[in-house]
């Protein structure tokens, strides 16, 4: 574990939840690996400026959630909570049905994530979302793949939910599952690039705009529209490709 722990960047809505988010971020950033000890009470108190009772409440929440376990006389250790344990095992040979099912899952999860982000996002998190959008839009005007920029934008929105479990699942989907889904559909002809880019630019701008306005219902609608459109575009492309092979 890295002993130089970062200070909290902004005041959490709940002190105990702030400690949970803090430890979860250390785990996600690989500052603490499964099997290693979490920071001591004294280290967390020093980093976050909270009381000992708040730290203990947070540790109780994390134990109940299966994030950590306390070993008598030894300390508190990170458990191996990989996405595989949540039923998200990788499928390396994705079918068309797998790819469309993954988009359905994203619609369910990311629609709510957008609504939560609109409600809970901090100013710093909004700045991060906008920076990711700017990078995405800048790369839309250049030849090349915008998948990495799209991933960063969607994960910045997920992070603004301040729900470490939702971020955990969406990080796995975007970084592990989506590359396989894109690979499985890479041979399918799509709309002309300029048509596709114009659509996704507007859809992403709509999502970020609603989060900036802190309008959760419009944020949910914008994200659902974007991902539903993505699913429909992909479904049609597969159907046209299959029809052309007959």
Describe this structure in words.
It comes from Pseudoduganella rivuli. This is FCD domain-containing protein. Residues 13-81 form the HTH gntR-type domain. The chain is mainly alpha-helical and 246 residues long. The protein folds into 2 domains: 15-81, Arc Repressor Mutant, subunit A (Orthogonal Bundle), CATH 1.10.10; 84-245, GntR ligand-binding domain-like (Four Helix Bundle (Hemerythrin (Met), subunit A)). Helices cover 66% and strands 3% of the residues. It has 9 helices and 2 strands, in the order αααββαααααα. The protein has helices at 15-28, 41-48, 52-64, 96-120, 123-140, 147-159, 164-184, 193-212, 216-245, and strands at residues 68-71, 75-78. Strands 1-2 form a two-stranded antiparallel sheet. Helix 4 (96-120) packs parallel to helix 8. The chain starts with 14 loop residues before the first helix and ends with a helix. Mean pLDDT is 83; it is low at 6-13 and 82-87.
